[in-house]
Amino acid sequence: MRPEQAGGATALASDSAVAVPIWLVATGVSLVALNLRPPITAVSTLMPQVQQQEGFTSTVASLLVAVPIACWVGFSGLTPRIGRELGLNRTIGFALLVLLAGFGIRLLPNVVALFVGTTVIGLAITVGNVLVPATIKRDHPEHVGLLTGLYTMSLYTGAAAASGLTLPLQHATGLGWRATLGLWAVPVVIAWLVWLPQLRVRGDTGAGAAPEGTPRSLWLQPLAWAVTVFFAMPALLFYAVSAWLPTILVDAGMDASLAGGMLSIANLVAVPSALAMSILVNRSERQVWAATSTGAVSAIAFAGLMISPVGGVIAWMILLGIGLGAGTAIGYSLPLLRSRDAQTAAKLTAMSQIAGFALCAVGPVLAGALHDLTHAWTAVLLLLLALAVVQIVSGLRAGTARFVA
Q: Which residues cross the membrane (predicted)?
């Protein structure tokens, strides 16, 4: 990271600096991030069972993935204000308890509870999405590259664990799909217990003067929009893939357990890709090479899934993991890299997450609707390939060594 960025972040944090060792920050960040994706990705591996037992169409079933993302869009603007009032650490700790409550509601045997619980889960995850990066900026701005990499890496580790272990856990326990989803509350309890010491850390306040909303001037800047679109594309692709990849492979003739394992491979490959890319791009003035190459790798993976979905699936999963993992890491880093100071970085981050996740919410639903319309997955894969091309184009602008005004 360049000196002016680190300095700005330090200035922003000066009134709320806390004496938290970096190992404790890294552990807490990693464990909380680890729990931000399993409540969503675990659903995708059980989607065929959910559709069969509840009689959902693909469009309705996709709402189980889209609703949490919609919560992120609607609640992201309020989260920094809550963090300033309660303290970042306390708000994150409370959100973990809310996440547990969402798991509990989703266990109730009716459709209303299923969607209410999913909404509660989405609200809780929003806090982690917004405030965990804020703790990184506040407590250790000099280690933003490493900690952002750990954060992104943990997101994919949690996603990989949920996609790869959910069906084996169901087979081992003999539980129904609702109770199987409830098993993912256990690591949330562990994260909350580890987070407890940070609830009493001296000086736990918000990250300085966080913005109330995104200024209109940013929304009118092409560079800010390029950063936002680039943030959105890997995230949109991730949630669309998480929702439907196992079903795509099952429809192509693959065993359901093996199909979930394929998604797990992609997520596992994404883990080191995210960490390595986060460190690399924070040491570079220009990120065009990284931004465009990650989109190209994802595009090749989607083209391969159209040509040979089962025969070349291992290769496609490896490429997909590299493209999405590294692309997501760049997406989280670009708001910092394209900003002269931490105040602007916070505003650009808010714009990226609100607008970016709004686009993400459309992805799984649109993919499900396309399948309902065409009764095949070719149109869906073509759409995902086109979105990877959009990522390449936005990366050409977002990766330049320039700052937003």
A: 12-36, 56-75, 87-105, 111-132, 144-169, 175-195, 223-245, 257-281, 288-307, 313-336, 348-370, 376-396
